[in-house]
Amino acid sequence: MSNAAGELPETAGTTPAGPLTGLRAVVLTQAWAGTFCTELLGFLGVEVIQIETRRRLDSWRGGVSAPAGRLPETPTAIHPWNTSPLYNSVNLNKEAITLDLSHPDGLNAFKQMVMTADIVAENFTSRVMSNFGLNFAALTRIRPGVVMISMSAYGATGPYANTPGIGGTIEPMAGMSALLGYEDGPPINSGQMYPDPVAGYFGAAAVITALHHRERTGEGQWIDLSMQETSMTFIADALMDFSVNRRVRGRLGNHHPSVAPHNMYPCAAAGWIALSAANDSEFNSLCEAAGRSDWAADSRFACASCRKQHELELDAEIAAWTTPQEAPALEQLLRAAGVPAAAVRNSQQVLEIETLWQRGMLVRVAHPEAGQHAYAAQPWRLSSTPGGVRLPAPGLGEHSRAVLTGLLGMDDAAYAQLEAAGVTGTEPNR
User: Fold this and answer.
1) Quick one: three-class SS letters along the chain?
2) What residues contact 167, with CB distance under 8 A and at least 6 apart?
3) Please, what is the end-to-end C-alpha distance for the chain in angstroms?
4) The overall pTM is greater than 0.85
5) What does the pLDDT profile of the chain (430 residues) look like in tens digits?
6) CB count in 10 Å sphere of residue 382
7) CB 197: neighbour CB atoms within 10 A?
8) Nearest to 151 by CA among 48, 30, 43, 23
């Protein structure tokens, strides 16, 4: 790994400002979709104050009896709920406080924080915020012009409005699972909880759009984001085909509806490579790279429709060529020839992709308990306002005292009273 891959990100004092520096978000997000959305806003410079409860930990922190972050090899990992790799991966650049909103003093403190906020974010089922008296209408009375984003599984209206969901249940509900799988096999899930990060990206983009609207008009916005609907945009062509033509697309494995070759091919040492040739030019480049002019001369492969018609025969020819070769070397050969290709990598191998380090997509962050690890940072580069990683993920309630006494002006006695009542603090209520 190069020096770039081993360097720590710049510290909070030297990280350049992002385009949203100066804005504050008070968020009740948890798990993945919501926390990823608000982490993206944090990369852009937003001050993100994340509110959690001591009574029920974020599922990505893990439960008190079975926490997700036990690191016996790391002496500093004292509190397992502070060292979960899941939680720490999507909560960079945040301050964390604990507040029990079911307690009147906790609810009052939250409302006081909203008075200072530009953004409020939550990813509960639709009824939760209303039960607290914190719907958009109520928040607007507290803070005119506030932007609120609600990230539920199925949106705030409709028959599933109060149904909870996660990426694994939303994939089939969005129709994605019906398209995942091999031609002769059953539908499957991606295995990656794909809808969560998709919703996170959509949510961040929606908040940015709402902030732009507010800057022009002074009006706040309520963003009612459905994880199901954001996931459906990724299969829009299949949905439109059914809507217009009443055709139900079948499962294609790694094939493409019209492009061939388009597949995963075996390589040496149990490796695999993905490659595609979308037109005659790319296919001719593939033939040249493979030293197989006979493919180009074969009437079965002479045109795009011919190749699709004889896809299985073409797959067999390509697989016979790729099987004895190392995937990384083959990837370089094909890319140099202008053929879209990528070796299949697991998560550890992705960390070895130098370009991701050079572009700042991967960084090393030192966490006070979990130690130093690689994390995914912002997936973009901005020239004048780059933003970036300022803070490691926070411990449970790590900033409770600083925020409540500093931002709200609460004195130490009042804070101690909240802590004694279990409204705030830095450890779970057991």
Assistant:
1) CCHHHHCCCCCCCCCCCCCCCCCEEEEECCCCHHHHHHHHHHHCCCEEEEEECCCCCCCCCECCCCECCCCCCCCCCCCHHHCCHHHHHCCCCEEEEECCCCCHHHHHHHHHHHCCCCEEEECCCCHHHHHCCCCHHHHHHHCCCCEEEEEECCCCCCCCCCCCCCHHHHHHHHCHHHHCCCCCCCCCCCCCCCHHHHHHHHHHHHHHHHHHHHHHHCCCEEEEEEHHHHHHHHHHHHHHHHHHHCCCCCCCCCCCCCCCCEEEEECHHHCEEEEECCCHHHHHHHHHHHCCHHHHHCHHHCCHHHHHHCHHHHHHHHHHHHCCCCHHHHHHHHHHCCCCEEECCCHHHHCCCHHHHHCCCEEEEEECCCEEEEEECCCCCCCCCCCCCCCCCCCCCCCHHHHHHHCCCCCHHHHHHHHHCCCCCCCCCC
2) 32, 33, 192, 193, 194, 195, 196, 227
3) 43
4) yes
5) 333 333 434 444 467 899 999 999 999 999 999 999 999 999 999 999 999 999 999 999 986 665 666 677 788 888 889 999 999 999 999 999 999 999 999 999 999 999 999 999 999 988 899 999 999 999 999 999 999 999 999 999 999 999 999 999 999 999 999 999 999 999 999 988 999 999 999 999 999 999 999 999 999 999 999 999 999 999 999 999 999 999 999 999 999 999 999 999 999 999 999 999 999 999 999 999 999 999 999 999 999 999 999 999 999 999 999 999 999 999 999 999 999 999 999 989 999 999 999 999 999 999 999 999 999 999 999 999 999 999 999 999 999 999 999 999 999 999 999 999 999 999 998 7
6) 14
7) 18
8) 30
Tokens of 82: 């502070």
All residues at 6 or more sequence positions from 50 whose CB lies less than 8 Å from its CB, including other chains: 27, 28, 29, 35, 38, 91, 94, 95, 96, 97, 394
Strand 47-52 and strand 24-28: pairing? Answer: parallel
Contact 271, 343 (CB under 8 A): yes
